[in-house]
From TrEMBL:
Keywords: NADP, Oxidoreductase. It comes from Arthrobacter hankyongi. SUPFAM superfamilies: GroES-like, NAD(P)-binding Rossmann-fold domains. This is NAD(P)H-quinone oxidoreductase. NCBIfam families: quinone_pig3 (TIGR02824). InterPro entries: ADH-like_N, ER, GroES-like_sf, NAD(P)-bd_dom_sf, Quinone_OxRdtase_PIG3. Residues 10-320 form the Enoyl reductase (ER) domain. The lineage of its organism: Bacteria, Bacillati, Actinomycetota, Actinomycetes, Micrococcales. The keyword Oxidoreductase applies. It comes from the Bacteria.
């Protein structure tokens, strides 16, 4: 098979497509002929040497794919050869084939093309795990999402609105905010010109802040919270350290949680994927959520894809077409 690894930590130019032995489906695994792999920020961090892979994970890049079932390992049920599927991975998605625990594989949504479906598993599972399961979201609540137009933002706006919530977003340009408005966002904040903490406080506060920045955003995130609100940190783009006002935290009876999806045990991922299938798939099939794809690159153009991703101008997902 063909797969992407890197020669050493560094820029996009360090990525290379290599010929490697084909994987085989082990017990309880599904072997997938990959159609598409989605790009995620963790891929860029891994390439720079700033993301430790979970124990036992392949050094092949990629955390989500779409494709067709090519082989079933011993003891694997629920799928047949040729089924169209999507999968959540610890790694291994930037390849023409990948073996995945069956619990992390779902039928591809029928309302979405198989290529575009490659950008669904990671964002959908991240949102369900953190907003619905950990955050205990309830209809009528307000959710603040930092980064309105990436994969998490574009999918999250639609998911929260479909579940009966109010959505506030931050972005860097009027154009990005207009995209967020078209997707259904209620409160639009240009973080370069406006204080999102002040705006959310005046609007009654956010019940959940889905935080991808951490570090310097901590004081404003806390100010933005409604009483009994929850800050759920899933990224640290702004830095790993911040200043916390414990008096403000206690006054708001707030909760701050840090979490990752990638390094969870297979059993937990299977539970999250089951909940994702139950919550998200009916909304996809009903057309309540669409999956914007910004651009598709060939597998051999992976360096250009990473360069484009890090430029930060994309709306929705960037995909790799992994078909040979």
């Amino acid at each position: 098979m063909r797969a992407v690894r890197f020669r050493h930590a560094g820029g996009p130019e360090t990525l290379a497509v290599e010929e490697l032995p084909d994987p085989v489906a082990g017990p309880g695994e599904v072997l997938i002929d990959v159609t598409a792999a989605g790009l995620n920020r963790a891929d860029a961090l891994q390439r720079r040497g700033r993301y430790n892979l979970p124990p036992g994970a392949s050094d092949i890049f990629g955390m989500e794919v779409s494709g067709t079932v090519a082989q079933l390992g011993p003891g694997t049920g629920g799928f047949t050869i040729g089924d169209k599927v999507v999968a959540l991975l610890a790694s291994g998605g930037y390849a023409t084939k990948v073996a995945v625990p069956a619990g992390q594989v779902l039928p591809a949504p029928q309302a979405t093309g198989l290529l575009e479906a490659g950008g669904i598993p990671e964002v959908a599972a991240t949102l369900v795990a953190n907003i619905c399961m950990l955050g205990q979201f309830r209809p009528g609540e307000t959710v603040l999402i930092h980064g309105a137009t990436g994969g998490i933002g574009t999918f999250g706006i639609q998911l929260i609105k479909a579940l009966g919530g109010r959505v506030a977003v931050t972005a860097s340009t009027p154009e990005k905010l207009d995209t967020a408005r078209q997707l259904g966002a209620d409160i639009l904040i240009n973080y370069r010109e406006q204080d999102f903490g002040e705006i959310l406080e005046a609007a009654g506060g956010a019940d959940i802040v889905l935080d991808t920045v951490a570090g310097p955003y901590l004081p404003a995130n806390l100010r933005a919270l409604a009483p009994f609100g929850r800050i759920i940190t899933i990224g640290r783009q702004g830095g790993a350290e911040g200043t916390l006002d414990f008096a403000a935290l206690m006054k708001k009876k707030a909760t701050i949680t840090g979490t990752l999806l990638r390094d969870r045990p297979a059993g937990q991922k299977a539970e999250i994927m089951h909940e994702t299938h139950t919550t998200v798939w009916p909304l996809l099939e009903a057309g309540a959520i669409r999956t914007p794809t910004d651009r598709v690159f060939g597998l051999s153009d992976v360096a250009a894809a990473h360069e484009y991703f890090e430029a930060g101008g994309h709306i929705g997902k960037i995909l790799l077409d992994c078909r040979t």
